Amino acid sequence: LQLRGPAHVKYKGGLTVEELQGVYAGIFGGTSFFTDVSSDITLPPAATIGYAYQPTKKWTLEADLNWTGWSTYDRMEFTLGESNVVLNGLTPVHHDYDDTVNVHFGGEYKLSDCWKLQGGYQFYETPVRDANFSSCNPDNHRHAFSAGLGYENKWFALLHAALDRQIRRQLGHR
Fold first, then answer.
1. Tens-digit pLDDT profile for residues 39-54
2. Consecutive H or E run containing 12
3. What angle do CA 121, 123, 125 make, to 5 degrees?
4. What distance lies between CA 40 and its chain's CA centroid?
């Protein structure tokens, strides 16, 4: 069982807009624009419960269930060093997200004392409602499949090679 409370994160950086033309060049005062940007974001709480079962000495099977409280992540606000009529409309960003439940399944087969074959499946539910799409955050359900090969001996604690393939569905086609 793993519980994670809300995490407060402070961001500082810069915003650069380039190759502005026409009306936008007039609003931004030229063909390029830079301003400082900062934000204080509180990321949502989460809880995970997992179980591993070893039916034989060669097989280990695992399952996890994860809940994330995205509904608490209701807005994101930016502070800009210099702003204008276009940038003023970007903040705050309102989310109105749903909480999510994600599932993960995995297995490992011991080929020998050193080699292990691994595989898994994960389903990630999107917190974003169709009406609240934003390119800043997760936007659709994802299915992920993974396969890997592990090697362990007295010199290497654990060495892995893995492949991961995610399948995403278009927003509105869940």
1. 888 889 999 999 999 9
2. strand 7-17
3. 170
4. 18
